[in-house]
């Protein structure tokens, strides 16, 4: 399983939002380039970059910051946020970005997704951001009547193999993941699913591995120090086996059990 450290850009700075709320922002760095280098040094094999201003405006807005990240790191990056035309996708890819993420346009214009997949192949992935199973669009500020599972099936039929699925209710909350929703989406759609939203611990990493997802995006957990990225990558790649600690109550129960 691949772990993607997230770099969310707003006004050229590296930030994190809570549940996609632009009024609930924490600035972690005014140097996204240095942040990208930090995650690369910790062992990251791929970076997940989101242009938050672009998601809101409907077109890429943080190209300078993206260029600086590309110039700094040797690992590939994927970029999403405001990419809603073929020209936008081509512009971002021409910078040296490995993959572009289509979001709102998948709800509004699935034929464009199909065209992009034919033109750019596996350089196209689609992000599905959902609350209570329904897709949110335009920087998560608008909800739709489209169910995530229905959209995922259309996306796969359009020729896209990888879907990034974000559970908005958990994003930025450090509340832990519900691995079942990602597994269910993968099974119902046939897509490779990258999970996003709520990751806080190694227990979450192992739960997602067991769920069979292709990757996981980690954000606030690594910025706040709740999760060590280097250790998480080692667990996800199978270099280290993580055994969850038994709760004290379970240990007490074991101590009370009759010995054979």
Structure description:
It is a single chain. Mean pLDDT is about 90; it is low at about 245-260. By secondary structure, the protein is an alpha/beta fold. The protein has helices spanning about 30-40, 50-55, 65-70, 85-95, 105-110, 110-120, 150-155, 180-190, 200-210, 220-225, 230-235, 250-255; strands at about 1-10, 15-20, 20-30, 45-50, 75-80, 100, 125-130, 135, 140-145, 160-165, 190-195, 215-220. α1 (about 30-40) runs parallel beside α3, α8 packs parallel to α9 and α9 (about 200-210) runs parallel beside α11 (about 230-235). It is about 40% helix and about 25% strand. It has 12 helices and 12 strands. The protein has a single domain (about 1-255), classed as TIM Barrel. An 8-stranded parallel barrel has the order 1-4-5-6-7-10-11-12, surrounded by 8 helices.
Widest beta sheet: strand line-up: 1-4-5-6-7-10-11-12
The level-1 CATH class: Alpha Beta
CATH architecture: Alpha-Beta Barrel
How far apart, in Å, are the first and last alpha carbons? 40 Å
Our Rg estimate from Cα atoms comes to 19 Å
Which range does the strand content fall in?
A: 25-35%
User: How many runs of DSSP E, i.e. beta strands?
Assistant: 12
Number of helices: 12
- Biggest β-sheet, characterized? 8 strands, parallel, barrel
Secondary structure: helix percent: 40-55%
Low-confidence runs: 246-260
Shape: globular
Q: Would you give the CATH topology? A: TIM Barrel
